[in-house]
Each structure stands twice: as structure tokens, then as C-alpha cells.
Amino acid sequence: MKVVDIHTHVYPPSYVSLLRSRQTVPYIRTFPDAPDSSRLIILPGEDDPSTPSTSRGRPVGPDYWDISKKIAFMDQHGIDKSVISLANPWLDFIAPEEAGEAARKINDEVNEICANSSGRLYAFAALPLSAKAEVVVKEVERLGSLKYIRGIIMGTSGLGQGLDDPALDPIYAALEKNRQLIFLHPHYGLPSSVYGPRANEYGHVLPLALGFPLETTIAVTRMLLSGVWDRFKGLDVLIAHSGGTLPFLAGRIESCIAHDVHLKKHGKIEGRRPVWDILKKNIYLDAVIYNEVGLNAAIEASGADRLMFGTDHPFFPPLEGEGSEWLSVNTNYAAIKAASGGKEAMADGILGGNAIRVLRLD
Ligand code: URA
Ligand code: ZN
């Protein structure tokens, strides 16, 4: 039995240098009240002057870029292989004319990291989504030449208009043709106004626990409503955080579609693939939901053979500091054990077997 972590991020050294050179989100910098601690500021609004210093981004250190730290973390937590991915916000903020070259560089760098890992690491590539669709397609086509790449990671903004944008069709077609799975991951959250006037008192809880999964759920539902999977029946998407809230809300989404006069008038109900079919044929879910209740919903929606263990390292480190076991990881291990209810084959599949099969790992 092998344990494979498919949700684990890195900011490669060249990307860290880029973040250090910037003055607007996303960036890395120190603040006058804590000159010895670099902070990683990536989420929208995270550097608002009203933000308390403990919520101003997060402390950033070698866990984010040093691969020996990643391997040590894997060894500490019994992880055999990891499929690493650039963390948010990927290349979304790169100037359009520089994005193609930036993607080639970072994907080559990540592939090289994997090549030097003695078989421990594979990767999801990043796409130059601020560039024109044809530049993105070209990078998708090139990924086949990178031995350790097993798909691409991307956020919910697409080419700037979301994932229901018809301009993405050539990219979806290229991903489908090249059998490159999309690892869909949130970044932008919800408008901060929904968190209310006391949001500052609650740290990162509302944007991370709720904003992230709802952003993902809305993005996937827009893909569904725009017929992406009716046009691209072989397009595979691995959805972060056990699908956001999709497994829980799928029934409500279907019901709202079935009762929508506008959709009926425009012929968008007849012949469409229901979300339940897509959940079982196109969607994979990570097991990063920290409790068996959410995990059971994911298993019921997509099937235990479509779930894959993840850690979200280096995010959610133990508050006790360096050297301690990661509560976030052990909570996910415990949830998988509980949801599998003694069915060893199910647990083994979620922990690693499914990733080895789906992502064609050696
Ligand atoms: N916070 C982030 O910004 N990204 C993650 O992947 C997890 C937490
Ligand atoms: Zn993540």
C-alpha cells in the first residue's frame, strides 16, 4: 500500500524571487513591527491596513520552497509520493506578454525538481492564463514532453471571465485530447463584504473554510450550466477540498435546473448531462475535508474510487511550530479511516491506489 499526496504545494525558488520583487498582492515582504519575519501575502485584501498583524498573510519560510523540507514532511507523515503543484495564485497575475515564457520556465523547473526526487515527486503544471488562448493551448501541448507532469492546476478565473467562458473551449479541447487532468483550486474567495464588519476578529477562518469551497462550487456549477461537460465528455477535473460543497449541494443544483423556466425556454434542460453523471465520470475529489461527514458525501457523490488523499502542505502547519506532527494531516488520515469503516481496499484506494491508477504514477 502506497500513500500518495495529490494536494501539496510549492513556490519554486524563481517564483519566490518574483514574489519578493513585488509591492502589490501577491508578494512577500517584512513589516516594520516584525522585521525578522517574512510574510506571504496572497489572498485578495490580505494586506488591508485594518488587518491585524496575525492575519496579515502568513509567515513564510523554507517549507514553501525547499524540496528537502517537502521530503522531510512526507517522511514524517508516511507519504510515499507527492504530486506537487504551484500554489495560488499561480501565474494569474503575470503580464499577458510574459505569461507564456513564465509558464514554460516554471513548468520546466518543477519537472526538473521531480526528476531529481528519486521517484518521490510528480507535478501538476501551471498555465499562462493571462495570455491568449492559443498561448495556453501551446503550453498544454508541450506538457507531454515533460516526464513528470500529470495534469495542470488552475484557479477559477480562467482567462478572466470564469470557467464557463466559451473562449476556454480550445483549452478544454487540448486538455481533453492530451489527457491532462485539471486540478481545480480556489484562490479568490467571495467578496469580503459577505464576512461582515467583524471579519477582522475571525482570522482567516471565513475566507478559508467557506470562501474557498464556495468559490470552487460556484465555478464548477457555472461549468456545468454552460455545458462544458456536454461538449467535452472526456474532460477530467480533480476538485480541491472534496469538491467545495458540490457533493452536498448537487441535488439542489439539479432541482433548480429542473425548475428553471429560462433554461427550459432556451432548450437547456433536455439532453444535458446531469451533475450526478459528471460527478461519477469526469470529476475526481481530493480528501482534504478534515472529517468523515464531508468525506462520506464525497464518496456517495463520486465513488470511493475517485477520491484521493491530500495534505495542502505547506498551508495549515501546526500552531505549535516546527517539528510537531501536522494536525491537518492527521485529521485527514483519521477521516479516511472513519469513512472507510474497516474496508481496507477502500482506504488503500483513497490513500494512494486511486492516485496511482488515475495519474498513471510508477
Ligand atoms: N491557503 C491558500 O492560500 N492556499 C491553499 O492552498 C491553502 C490555504
Ligand atoms: Zn491547496
From TrEMBL:
Residues 4-361 form the Amidohydrolase-related domain. Keywords: Decarboxylase, Lyase. SUPFAM superfamilies: Metallo-dependent hydrolases (SSF51556). It comes from the Eukaryota. One of its GO terms (cellular component) is cytosol. GO terms for molecular function: carboxy-lyase activity; hydrolase activity. Residues 42-61 are annotated as: Disordered. GO terms for biological process: secondary metabolic process. Belongs to the metallo-dependent hydrolases superfamily. This is Uracil-5-carboxylate decarboxylase. It comes from Pseudovirgaria hyperparasitica.
